[in-house]
Amino acid sequence: MTAQQNGTISFEVSDFLLNCFIRSSSWQLWLPLPLSLLFFLAMGANATLLITIRLETSLHEPMYYLLSFLSLLDIVLCLTVIPKVLAIFWFDFRSISFSACFLQMYIMNCFLAMESCTFMVMAYDRYVAICHPLRYASIITDQFVTKAAMFILARNIFMTLPIPILSARLYYCGRNVIENCICANMSVSRLSCDDVTINRLYQFAGGWTLLGSDLLLIFLSYAFILQAVLRLKTESAVAKALSTCGSHFILILFFSTILLVFVLTHVAKKKVSPDVPVLLNVLHHIIPAALNPIVYGVRTQEIKQGIQRLLKKGW
């Protein structure tokens, strides 16, 4: 479809082309294999964790329900991003329809925000377990998990909805090559012929409001946990307290570190290759998803025992 603006003829875009690592072509040779392995590891590990928690009645507790929710989010994020990236690498399927691109954009923003919010709820769970152990069973209940899940869904579904809507309403008049492996908001929006200031402002404000507030509450929770742990008088009590939240803290560290590096590379984009933020954006959707179930499976005795029992039963 064509349109005429200011005496020139432009073409309205109906689909996009994803250009992955055009400046670092060597990455296209070695990256697909480890990315494929990480994808199958993430899918397999999260599926195993979900099945274990579902079938083992001893794991039917609020903390493991939250972990199941986290695994579901990881699976959806992986399926939304990685298969398309691998299709580009393996088969050069770079085309993506207009609607599919904005749907991917929405799911990525929404589910990453949900994951951040889930980490925040899990940090509160660990705070209650360490700082108010006698009240834990009365505070962290199945009803609490249900309400927390509803809050996570409602907050992030509605807060991230304007992102694809603002991008989709822009006029795309000719350029359709996205310099990215995925339909990231600003990578798509900068192709339009319209002013994208509102898009930039909402992405910035929404991102820092959602992720920033979650990280602040997470670190406050762990500050109170550390304060409570330092008051414990026996080494065994300290070790037990730290082990109960060690896995969770490791996962938050992975999630926030990749996010922080991604932000810093965008700030210093003139000093790094433009392909580096693209790589970090892809890895942010796969590395935490692959590590989350593994870290919990290795560090949580109840989950290890549950997996072993299921393996003995042959599922």
From TrEMBL:
Give TM segment ranges.
33-53, 65-91, 103-124, 144-166, 208-230, 242-264, 276-298
Kindly state which keywords UniProt assigns to this record, in alphabetical order. Answer: G-protein coupled receptor, Membrane, Olfaction, Receptor, Sensory transduction, Transducer, Transmembrane, Transmembrane helix
| UniProt subcellular location | Membrane
* Cellular component, GO annotation: plasma membrane
Record GO biological process: cellular response to lipid
SMART domains, sorted: 7TM_GPCR_Srsx
Where does this protein chiefly localize?
A: membrane
Say which domain of life the source belongs to: Eukaryota
InterPro entries registered for this protein in UniProt: GPCR_Rhodpsn (IPR000276), GPCR_Rhodpsn_7TM (IPR017452), Olfact_rcpt (IPR000725), OR51/52/56-like (IPR050402)
> Where in the numbering of this chain does the G-protein coupled receptors family 1 profile domain appear?
45-296
Q: Name one GO molecular function term.
A: G protein-coupled receptor activity
Topology versus the membrane, per the UniProt entry?
A: Multi-pass membrane protein
Matching entries from PANTHER family are given as: OLFACTORY RECEPTOR 56A3, OLFACTORY RECEPTOR 56B1-RELATED
> What is the name of the protein in this document?
G-protein coupled receptors family 1 profile domain-containing protein
What is the species of this protein?
Answer: Loxodonta africana (African elephant)
Provide the taxonomic classification: Eukaryota, Metazoa, Chordata, Craniata, Vertebrata
Gene for this protein? LOC135231706
